[in-house]
Write a structure and sequence with these properties.
- This protein is of the alpha+beta class and about 475 residues long.
- The chain has two domains: about 15-100 and about 140-310 and about 350-460, Outer membrane efflux proteins (OEP); about 105-140 and about 315-345, Outer membrane efflux proteins (OEP) (Single Sheet), CATH 2.20.200.10.
- Helix content is about 60%, strand content about 10%.
- A four-stranded antiparallel sheet has the order 1-2-3-4, with helices on one face.
- Helix 4 packs antiparallel against helix 8 and helix 6 (about 285-305) packs antiparallel against helix 7 (about 350-420).
Length: about 475
Amino acid sequence: MRTYLAAAAALALLAGCDMAPDYRRPEMAAAAPAFKESKDWKQAAPADALPRGAWWQIFKDADLDRLEQRLEDGNQTLQQALALHEQAVAQARIAGAAQLPQLNYNTSINRDQRSRNAALQVHPNLYNDVLAQGSLSWEIDLWGRVRNLTAAAERRADASAADLAAAKLALEAELAASYLSLQGLDALQEMLDRTVSADQEALDYTKRRHDGGAAAQVDVDEAELQVANAKTQATNNRLQRAQLEHAIAILLGEAPADFSLPPRSLQAVPPSIAVGLPSSLLERRPDIAAAERRVAAANADIGVARAAFFPQFDLAAIGGVESAFPHTLLNSASTLWAVGPQVSGPIFDAGARDAATDVAFAAFNQAAAYYRQTVLGAYREVEDSLTALRRLEEESATQGTALDAARRALTQAQTRYKGGLATYLEVITAQNAALAAESGAIDVQSRRMNAAVNLIQALGGGWEGLQQSAAP
């Protein structure tokens, strides 16, 4: 017994070896020193545990705040991501349990009848067997196999937590963008309803002129066409609004029939966002964190594959009592026990372990490449969003100029028509130009708000409590 225990202790002391390579976060071969649209950029590193806060409050919309608060409890996609994270955490606990000794018990009471025609006769042929025993097994992790299995599972659990955060952020952004787009459709609906009303008044006026002999029938036909076209556009806009409202209901986990949002025109302007946002914000992107942690898990898998080349040491022990009669079960003569180390290892496997190691290294390289691609994609998304905000601001200014000009041209065309100096076709042309200009202005405003949401998502969430490196 002392010999066995001494051998087990020696193996335990040696169980500090680790076959996994020293882990280093993959370096970026093409890390940009700065944004084209900003500055103070540095290489991204996972920091997704930093608080994001209720980033949507930057839009100062109480209705949006209430919808976002309902999202977490109702959205079923988020519930799926949460369940996947819980599974990953449980798998990590299962892997970690293998580092400790495993204790089990076994009890049985049997009445056995041996064959009387067996080649070897044992007497008596009919007997009782009462057994109660416990067993202990423990893999002495000499080469780090169990530790690396545990580390890999823990890193994948970390990655699943980042996946959950990424899913939550994406859904929050989708809800905010859908809500702001809905307000854009409401603003467009108001404009179309005004247009239908104005065109109807113009049609009535043209009919009176026609009845008085001052306008031709073609003017009446063109005015009716204008009213019909405006009503068609208004109806189509209502269809788009209804479908978007249904999409918002699904995001909240509610049936579309039980959900509605009152019309509310888009009046807000994009919030002031620091152009020189600190590069640390990109470190908070959960998808980057998830990709990096899967690289770490793949690195641990290499250690597991390498450990398969070496012997596996196990310490096993059993103890208990066994007797043919229950009343003698607790006698000292009924005691049984066994203890000792077990060693198992490969001799010949036709290269299977070499192939498994190659698989582990290839999986590591794949995970590292995916991490680099995720960071590059983050670069692009931030650049796109910053560019969109700046260019859409310029577009908003020029679209406003075009709208003012279109309105002046419409007023002049209506005045000329009433004075008999122009045909109704000139009025229709001016009306269509004004309608297109106002629709374009609403569209640009809606796109600016969505670009602000996209920038927040690209940066990994809000920037509450973080330093900004430049003035708005």
